[in-house]
Amino acid sequence: MSDDRLDRAFMALADPVRRAMIARLSRGPATVNELAEPFAISVQAVSKHVQVLETAGLVTRSRDAQRRPVHLAPAALEELTGWIDGYRIAHEQQFRRLDALLQTQKEKES
Amino acid sequence: MSDDRLDRAFMALADPVRRAMIARLSRGPATVNELAEPFAISVQAVSKHVQVLETAGLVTRSRDAQRRPVHLAPAALEELTGWIDGYRIAHEQQFRRLDALLQTQKEKES
DNA sequence: GTTTTTATCAACGACATGGTTGAATAGTAG
DNA sequence: CTACTATTCAACCATGTCGTTGATAAAAAC
């Protein structure tokens, strides 16, 4: 995943409205109007949020008459957790190595 | 994890410089100057990035003479993957249920 | 006690984000 | 053909982000 896509994906999740949309979409596809319903903002603003999510690759869209249902793209979410976990786990292992090193040095002293 | 902390944490990761810092810190603590070294930006800018990461709870800091080493906070990273995975897995299950429903309807028809 | 190192604070500018309203488009329904 | 529904485009404004430079603080080293 390119730097640019990671930028956009994490940025997309850095907004409570868009995270709530992700939560809603995890239960199934929804139209822009359906997504707008819980919020006190204009439909246009919601449309923009959807475009941000789409550009980030976190959702895809289909066509149903004049509606454009939004679907979650779970693979993109998985890439994000993959990125984070890579470094989290690396840090954990680094920590363990340091711990082991300190342990052996302690044994040498005594 | 509050909306506000999630906002800050995802926002913090939505920048390639800060993600590179996370990558560096996964191999062990580093000072501001050490973190600045790979980048063509001022030390002040790096200091700001560190503050963003710290406010987001992704890193912590200690004291060593006039240095203020930065340490990764893996628990915060884990919370983020937890948030994402919650909805990713919910979506997966929803998808499976829908699939099963379509399957039984198909069987009824025949 | 002056200089050096490490890091932060403050003010500024360029640009992006998140909202608004008003107009336009695409498809459905009468 | 007209009217309604769903969605987007365009222009605008307020606020926030990311970088800069210059000044300041704190601890160390000489």
The level 1 CATH classification of chain A is: Mainly Alpha
Radius of gyration of chain A: 21 Å
Q: Could you list the spans of chain A in which at least 5 consecutive residues all have pLDDT below 50? A: none
Number of helices of chain A: 5
Strand content of chain A: 5-15%
Specify which chain pair forms the largest interface: A-B, 33 and 33 residues
Quaternary: homodimer
Under CATH, the topology of chain A can be stated as Arc Repressor Mutant, subunit A
Strand order in space, largest sheet of chain A: 1-2
The CATH H-level homologous superfamily of chain A: Winged helix-like DNA-binding domain superfamily/Winged helix DNA-binding domain
User: How many individual β-strands of chain A?
Assistant: 2
Helical residues, percent of chain A = 55-70%
Structural class label of chain A: mainly alpha
Question: How does the overall form of chain A come out from the CA principal axes?
Answer: elongated
Number of domains of chain A: 1
Write down the secondary-structure element order of chain A. HHHHEEH
CATH A-level architecture of chain A: Orthogonal Bundle
Mean pLDDT of chain A: 95
Query: Largest sheet of chain A, if any?
Result: 2 strands, antiparallel
